[in-house]
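To illustrate the input format used throughout this study, we show a single complete record. The first block contains the structure-token representation of the backbone; no residue identities are included at this stage. The design step must infer an amino acid for every position from geometry alone.
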């Protein structure tokens, strides 16, 4: 580690050297530009002169007879003005400072060669730092393995520190309740809201700010604001529930403030090829209080449906269109958590509302709904 610190200090010094060389190079170029403007005139004057010459050429081309010699003094006068009123016979205007400009260019070339050398050497030093870091990691891993092998039978080694969180059981890594998950080293990371006891919120409804009458692609990718109303997305939900065995919790609240819970001891959905079917829904947890009743078991095994992708087993209807929502409909169902939010008239909202049949019935549209999942006790640790 001390060697790494020394190499990092050397690396910083070389960066400072690069900045110094860059400043000297810029200063030299500015001086050269100033001398060029001194002998050739300002950039604006040179541009105006060039435009005048272009107009003269166009005028000459448009004539059938070339310009008479009388016009030549005009051009000669412009050229004399361009080169600082120096006669043509006096030779190049750069003779007076040719030696000074050459020395400056030599110094600039020396700076650039030095810069190239420092860049190569710094690249080599960075490569050594990376190699040393990998060696340290490898030694630490080998030491942990050796210590694990020496433990008596029945004793588990201390959990290794993970670089990436894989579930909300590691919510101590969350910032303001939002945790970045990476399920495998090869998979893409994504953010989820976490609640107490390791629960991951995959859907939240609390207002009419976000419409849940969405297309198949939107439900696949997810939508909304993780700090407000949202749906995490079918792809992410499939990745989570296929990475470890999860349980499901449904949190419900009506407009009078009454709260009820429904839970299932296992939960998983399949991938898009199987139309995100509700492939696993375990036993209803009767011990939860206050109970909301079981209004989801009827949907077990159903494929996901949206208004533009009908998979609801109803030959004469489209449940997603009828309920104005996406969901695991089964011609059609006993719950509609993704229905329309009815801030007014919630008591008689009907089948388009957010309802849970065994809690306030099908006609009552609920005020708040959350869908949460959590790795079954022991599953997340075993997987890691």
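Output of the design step:
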């Amino acid at each position: 580690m001390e060697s790494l610190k020394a190499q990092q200090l050397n690396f910083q010094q070389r960066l400072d050297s690069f900045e110094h060389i860059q400043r000297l190079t810029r200063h030299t170029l500015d001086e050269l530009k100033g001398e060029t403007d001194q002998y050739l005139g300002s950039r604006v004057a040179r541009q105006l002169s060039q435009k005048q010459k272009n107009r003269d050429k166009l005028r000459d081309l448009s004539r059938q007879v070339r310009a008479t010699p009388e016009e030549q003094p005009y051009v000669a006068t412009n050229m004399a003005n361009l080169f600082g009123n120096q006669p043509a016979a006096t030779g190049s205007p750069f003779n007076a400072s040719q030696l000074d400009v050459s020395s400056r260019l030599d110094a600039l070339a020396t700076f650039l060669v030095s810069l190239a050398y420092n860049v190569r050497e710094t690249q080599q030093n960075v490569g050594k730092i990376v190699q040393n870091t990998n060696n340290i990691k490898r030694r630490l891993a080998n030491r942990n393995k050796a210590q694990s092998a020496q433990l008596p039978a029945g004793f588990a080694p201390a959990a290794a520190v993970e670089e990436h969180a894989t579930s909300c059981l590691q919510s101590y890594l969350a910032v303001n309740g939002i945790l970045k998950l990476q399920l495998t080293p090869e998979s893409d990371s994504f953010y989820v809201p976490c609640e107490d006891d390791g629960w991951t919120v995959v859907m939240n409804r609390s207002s009419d700010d976000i419409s849940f009458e969405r297309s198949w692609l939107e439900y696949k990718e997810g939508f909304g604001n993780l700090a407000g109303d949202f749906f995490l997305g079918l792809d992410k939900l499939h990745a989570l529930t296929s990475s470890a065995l999860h349980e499901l919790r449904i949190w419900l609240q009506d407009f009078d403030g009454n709260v009820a819970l429904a839970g299932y001891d296992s939960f998983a959905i399949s991938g898009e090829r199987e139309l995100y079917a509700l492939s696993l829904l375990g036993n209803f947890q009767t011990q939860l209080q206050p109970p909301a009743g079981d209004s989801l078991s009827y949907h077990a095994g159903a494929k996901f449906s949206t208004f533009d992708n009908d998979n609801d087993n109803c030959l004469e209807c489209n449940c997603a269109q009828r309920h104005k929502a996406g969901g695991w409909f089964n011609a059609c169902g006993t719950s509609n958590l993704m229905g329309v939010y009815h801030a007014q008239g919630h008591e008689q909202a009907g089948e388009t509302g957010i309802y849970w049949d065994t809690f306030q019935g099908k006609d009552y549209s609920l005020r708040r709904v959350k869908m949460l999942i959590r790795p079954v006790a022991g599953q997340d640790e075993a997987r890691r």
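Structural context for interpreting the output: Residues 79-94, 379-384 have pLDDT under 50 and may be disordered. The radius of gyration is 37 Å.
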